[in-house]
Structures are given as C-alpha cells and as structure tokens.
Amino acid sequence: MSKILVTGGAGFIGSHVCEALVNRGDKVICLDNFTDYYGPDVGYTSDKKVRNIEDLTDQPNFDLISADIRKASDLETIFARNQGIDVIIHLAAMAGVRRSFEIPDDYAATNINGTRLLLINANQFDVRNFVFASSSSVYGDNSQVPFREHQDGLQPISPYAETKLEGEMLCRENHGQTGMPITCLRFFTVYGPRGRPDMIPYKFTRFLFEGKPLPVFGDGTTQRDYTFINDIVSGIIAAADRALPFEVINLGNSRTVKLIDFIRTLERLTGITAQINWQQPQKGDVQRTYADITKARELLGYNPQTPIEEGLRQLVEWYRKNQ
Fold it and tell me: pLDDT under 70 in the chain at which residues?
C-alpha cells in the first residue's frame, strides 16, 4: 500500500484516479480547491465536484483536503501533517484552451507557479515519485503525425499549452537537480462519465438532451484522438507505480475521429438529431491531434481498450442517470 497525494482529485480525471487507488487499497489524500471555475453557464459548479467523490468520503483510506496549490502556506501545512507521502499525482490545473486567452495570468499562477511549489515540497519531504499531467496541446498545430514525444520544435498556440510545456520544463529541471523520478503524461482529449463540462463530449451530450444547437467551429473536419477515462487512469496508475527516472509519455487512443463523425455517433446513441450552429474556427484550436503511444506501451504496459462508440455509450448512459 502506498500513500498517494492526488491534486485536483475531485475533478474529472482526478476523481476517477482516486476511486481506482482507493479500490485497490492505497492511502489517498485528495487535494482540491473546489473552484467554480467553469461557472453556472455550463451547469457545473463546485457542488458537482463534491459529488464526483461522494462515494469515497466514508472510506477509511481516503482523506479530502480543500486547499490551493498556489498558496505555499497551504502546501507546507498539508505536507507537514501528512508525513510519508510516497507518490504525487499532479492533476490540478486551470484547463481549457479558449479561456486561457482571457485570463492568461491565472493560468500561469496555477499551472506554472503551483507546479513549482508542489515540486519544492515534494523534494523537501522526500516524495519517491512525481507524475505530472501535461497535455497534447503542447504539440500545437503540428503537421508531423502521429505526435511523438521526441519531436523537436514544439510550438504551442495558446497560453494554456504554453503553461503545460513550461510545467514539463520545471519537472525536467527538478529531476536534473534532485534525481526525483518524474513522469510527464501528455493526455489526448480525455472523455467519459463525470467529464469536463467545457469539453465537446460532455458539452455536446448535454446540448443534445437540452435541445440546444451544437456550436461547431470550422467545417467539422477537425480530428481528435479521443481517449476514454478508464484507459487514461490505467496509464496514470502505471506511471505512479513504476517511478521512471524522467520521461515524457503520450497517453492517447492512437485513433483519430472527425468532429462531424463524433456528432453522428452521439446522434445514434441518444436518438436525437443535432442542430448544428456552424461558426468560424476559433483561436487556439488545432486541426488534428494524434498520439503515437509506442513509448507508453513499452514503458507503462499501456493498452487502451475503449473504442469511441463504447466510450460515448457509457458517457450517454451516465448522463441519462445523473443529469
């Protein structure tokens, strides 16, 4: 049994990670600041983050802490009161490309400075392994596909992507200075039950059921490497268990789906015909994401199992039951 700190543990990915770790018997410390970041306009406020983890709160090997990684005093108190943390899974972040153009300083404060403070405390308290959640957005609008971790000349095209790449650089520098094992995982469009409300899978599912038109930016030919939450969780936990010296690893499904095909699949699963509101492409959007997962297979035993039809079926079923 390991003692594992999960930052952003009440969010979409974090709550699934906490659930999997608790179920296998690890001691889990879930840290979240329960911000109303998404706002009421997307139907997802802090009370819903609480619901993400409500089935865990009575478990003896689960502790919930409301705190902010941007505050040094919060982190110092947490680490001092929870001696012996073996692994940190750092998922807390300001997420989303489009909003990062509006409040870039907030993104930097959380995604860069918050990560720096967490690394400082991890070193001070002898954490044995650090897993950092990065993003496929660091590749930018890259024509070299599939995206490989060793590609040179990464050119992020949004403040969000820049903060994630800077977070990777902080991790690399920290490993070089301290030797602490660190794995940076680049996630590719994660979706599934309890999904992020600002992302297309959850947002379009909600809009279909509410009878709202789907805002499609561009001509519907953009492609994404949609990755089901269970597959992502398996990769995260593998990275937490292996304590690789320093690695940057893609976690995707290694299959691309056009946006218009994604919408047609949702229509079949919901039985609802979409109204589409065609709009101009938005700043920060890329044409395609596509993960080469050779490294993940070799180093983590990662093997995504969920095709898009099955993943969306589970999302739609969850939405029907919970919304």
Answer: 36-46, 284
